[in-house]
Each structure stands twice: as C-alpha cells, then as structure tokens.
Amino acid sequence: MYRIAVKRVYEAASVADGFRVLVDRVWPRGFSKERADIDLWLKSVAPSTELRKWFDHDPSKWREFKLRYFAELEAQPTGLDELMDRASDSVVTLVFSAKDEQHNQAVALREYLNGERAK
Q: Residue 24 domain-assigned?
C-alpha cells in the first residue's frame, strides 16, 4: 500500500504533505500557483472533461464515476508510474479543488493506486 494522502488545495500546505500533486484538469479558480504550493500539476491523471462534467460531484453517481475513471486511467496510464514511484519512497498528497471531500477524483485515484479498484 502506498503512502497517499488527499487534501483540498484551499487547505494550508504542510511538511507532512510530502510531495504535493494537483490532480485537477483545470487550475483551481482564484488561487495563485505560489499559494497552492504544488510540486507537480499532473493533468494526465485527472478525469476527462466529459467525465468530470457528467459526474458533477453528484454522490449518487460516485460508484459509476469511479468505474469510468478507472477505465480512463487504465486506457491512458501516463503519470501513474511517477505517482507510484514517489509514493513508494515518501508521502504523496493528491491535491484537489472540489468542495466535496469524499466524492472527488483525488479520493478515487488514491483507491485506484492502492488497488481498491472493485469498490
């Protein structure tokens, strides 16, 4: 199991975050790059625009969102190796901008990376 945390970009960065990776396809509205304190913006692991719009952070679509998102990740694994390499050595924090802290791509991506793909 990898050492992967998730955190909203609007929360203050801390040393405990380790390597901070923004996993949104678009930059968080109204937030400067300096303030975000991001080590890497990895758009390639974010859900497609179509999937993001379809999901619209609707908890009733969460299960289906994850299935579709995981299929996207498997079809286009660019960036996943880097995340797994970093997470095997130190903490990686997946940073996101969604208001819903339980139903977002960072939470789903952490599940995916930790092998929880069937849930």
A: yes
